[in-house]
Amino acid sequence: MSKILIADDNEDITKVLAAYAKKEGYDPVIASDGEQALDLFDKEEPVCVLLDVMMPKVDGYEVCRKIRSKSNCPVILVTARGEDFERIMGLDIGADDYIVKPFSPSEVMARVRAVLRRVDGGNVGTQSSNGDKVLKIDNLEVNLDEYQVTIGGEKVRLTKKEIETMWTLAGNPNRVFTRDNLLDTLWGYDYYGDGRTVDSHIKRLRQKIDKVDHPNWAIKTIWGVGYKFEYEGAAGK
Q1: Each residue of 176-191: b (16+ CB within 10 Å) or e?
Q2: What are phi and psi of 227, to 5 degrees?
């Protein structure tokens, strides 16, 4: 049975979420602080993590960073605070989704199903013709097997979501993606976000990739519409 790690220092919340996880056919693993969450993550190998932000010993943001440094396991942050900058920071460090308390346990399970569908369905971008999850355009290489991006042979440190964004855009050179397209493709159709999430995400991505020269391609803004990966060598350019 697939395991879900539920990390929260509120016992009432973990009991409710554990009960709903069992109804969905998952085996819940409970952690009451950040250190225990990291320990159980390594031991139990869950398929998804529900992670409270405000936890003793190690907070949820740091737990997420450490998980993301070694695994692409989906992480859903849960918090009592819902300010935009906190939500964006959570996504920036590699979280797949963000839920604000109070929440419906049914909604939480719906979010779990959504992120697992995206992982299992492989709906991020399109694979190369040989079936490998490696995309090469000009001096750019996006490797989804290793979750790594290099430009001119230089590794660029990106979050999981930023790598998936590069895969989606670069895999469709010169195609314009609306903000809604990107929300649906990268966060899922049932993600409760808006265009500002995409704009902030693209801004941070550009800041990172622009540290390395890439004269033949760029992520361009199409004002009032969205974004595209503009490549001079693409067909029809």
Answers
A1: ebebebbbebbbbeeb
A2: -145, 160
Length of the chain: 237
| pLDDT higher than threshold 80 for residue 49 | yes
**Is the pLDDT reported for residue 237 higher than 50?**
no
Q: Which secondary structure element, helix H or strand E, spans residue 237, and what is its range? A: none
The residues near 233 (Cβ < 8 Å, ≥ 6 apart) are: 137, 138, 216
pLDDT class of 219 with cuts at 50, 70, 90: very high
- pTM, rounded to two decimals: 0.58
For residue 31, give the 3-state DSSP assignment: strand
Residues 6 or more apart whose CB falls under 8 angstroms from that of 166 comprise 140, 142, 149, 158, 205, 209
| pLDDT at residue 129, rounded to an integer | 37
Alpha carbon of 194 to those of 71, 187, 203: distances in Å? 27, 11, 15
Closest to 6 in 3D by CA, of 25, 86, 19, 71:
19
123 pLDDT band, cuts 50/70/90, is very low
Q: What is the pLDDT of residues 147-179, one digit of tens each?
A: 899 999 999 998 888 888 998 899 888 888 888
Closest to 60 measured CA to CA, from 83, 80, 84, 85: 80
Q: Is the dihedral of CA 58, 61, 62, 66 positive or negative?
A: positive
Is residue 31 left, alpha or beta, with left meaning phi > 0 and alpha meaning psi from -120 to 50? beta
The helix/strand/coil state of 7 is: strand
